[in-house]
Amino acid sequence: MQTVTVxxxxxxxxxxxxxxxxxxxxxxxxxxxxxAKLTALGPKIDIDWPDFYNEAIETNGKSVSKIVVExxxxxx
Length: 76
Prior knowledge:
CATH architecture of the domain at 2-38: 3-Layer(aba) Sandwich
CATH topology of the domain at 2-38: YefM-like fold
Radius of gyration: 24 Å
Largest sheet: 3 strands, mixed
Shape: elongated
Strand order of the largest sheet: 1-2-3
Oligomer: single chain
Order of helices and strands: EHHEEH
Structural class: alpha+beta
Distance between the termini: 48 Å
Low-confidence stretches: none
Helix content: 25-40%
Strand content: 15-25%
């Protein structure tokens, strides 16, 4: 993580934006104190989402509360 001063951000804003787009996180300091962190929006990599549809439980007309109770019986 890179640290830059407020003055450096003002002078080199487009360069700093390019570094952020590349995935770098930048801490901005003012008079030696950290005041902000700049990061890119969104994840740096693609997220491998689970397939919730295939993991869904068939209710077969039962209420959800009954299904939850039945699935918890082995824990008690």
